[in-house]
Amino acid sequence: MARDTERTAVPKYQRIVEHFRSQLKSGALKPGDRLPSLVEMREQYDSSRPTTDKVHSILQAEGLIQRQQGCGTFVTQPRRT
Fold first, then answer.
1. Is residue 12 part of a domain?
2. Are 34 and 74 in contact (CB under 8 A)?
């Protein structure tokens, strides 16, 4: 039961961002893979437009995805440190 409380304490956008980060880390998503569209993401995660926009903005700011107008959103090459 405490687990449910912890889960609801974390905003939905953060849970979705963490989901994508874990998919990238595990290799389930690879550079060049296309992410679901914003509409598909809203349906898949039962989220609002502002939530999915925020998820995309965070992932893009971190350099994990790149939006290509008219083509979609794609996983980028990892940055070398």
1. yes
2. yes
Domain span at 57: 2-75
> What CATH number should be reported for the domain holding residue 55?
1.10.10.10
Residues 37-64 pLDDT 10s: 889 999 999 999 999 999 999 999 999 9
For the chain, the domain total comes to 1
Give the Cα separation of 1 and 80 in Å (integer). Answer: 41
CA 34/CA 74 separation, integer angstroms: 4
Cβ-in-10-Å burial (0-12, 13-18, 19+) of 61 comes to exposed
pTM of the model: 0.80
Angle at 13 between CA 55 and CA 53, to 5 degrees: 35
Q: Report if residue 81 sits inside a domain.
A: no
